[in-house]
């Protein structure tokens, strides 16, 4: 799953941002495994010696992820974890090079199981606590479903309060979209890899 030359979707823009933080032997987290697409992207980026932790609260999502990962021959480097990203700092070995959040509900799954403002904010705080210097976090926030406005506010408020010397934060939207645009946050921790 290569980085597209002309990214079109929010997910593709997130990958363009995350790619430079990945390298052989690195460690990355997919904080919302879903169908496993981002997990595959991260697993390819960390190479055979690397490690990807892929979290979801739905077993259905993790089995889809494992199926996709094994079909690409990447199972050795991916650990799936049934658990919420709000516990991220307790579930993975820190520090990590990159964390991806792709919020909302499982595509093709139940719309009743959806990321929520409190747990999302807690998950982002946990990610900020385990990201290495120079590491990157992407957060794709969808804005059209029930509860999305509250989640968008929670993410925006949290990230706007980060100390500028420690974290650089950018936000991207599809400005002339006729549909409700997702928001993509790009977070980089200051410093160089140690
Ligand atoms: C939009 S999907 C992710 C798509 C995925 N990244 C992909 O590449 O296919 C969002 C996922 O977040 C999961 N989720 C909801 N709350 C969660 C939580 N607290 N911790 C981890 N995953 C959660 C849902 O079960 C759903 O599978």
**Number of helical stretches of at least 4 residues:** 6
Query: How far apart, in Å, are the first and last alpha carbons?
Result: 28 Å
The CATH class, by name, is Alpha Beta
The name of the CATH architecture is 3-Layer(aba) Sandwich
Instruction: State the strand order across the main sheet.
Output: 3-2-1-4-5-7-6
- How much helix, percentage-wise, in residues? 25-40%
- Rg from Cα: 15 Å
Strand count, sense and barrel status of the largest sheet are: 7 strands, mixed
Taken from the alpha-carbon principal axes, the silhouette is globular
Order of helices and strands: HEHEHEHEHEHEE
Can you give keywords for this protein?
194 residues; Rossmann fold; 7-stranded mixed β-sheet; binds S-adenosylmethionine
What this model shows, in words?
There is one protein chain. This protein has helices spanning 10-18, 37-46, 59-71, 88-91, 117-130, 148-160; strands spanning 27-30, 51-56, 78-82, 96-102, 131-141, 167-173, 183-189. It is of the alpha/beta class and 194 residues long. It has one domain (10-189): 3-Layer(aba) Sandwich (Rossmann fold). The chain has a 7-stranded mixed beta sheet with strand order 3-2-1-4-5-7-6, sandwiched between helices. Helix 5 (117-130) runs parallel beside helix 6. The protein is globular and about 40 Å long. Bound molecules: S-adenosylmethionine. The site of S-adenosylmethionine has 21 residues, from helix 2 and strand 2.
What's this model, at a glance?
By secondary structure, this protein is an alpha/beta fold.
What topology does this entry show?
Layout: H1 10-18, E1 27-30, H2 37-46, E2 51-56, H3 59-71, E3 78-82, H4 88-91, E4 96-102, H5 117-130, E5 131-141, H6 148-160, E6 167-173, E7 183-189
Parallel strand pairs: 1-2, 1-4, 2-3, 4-5
Antiparallel strand pairs: 5-7, 6-7
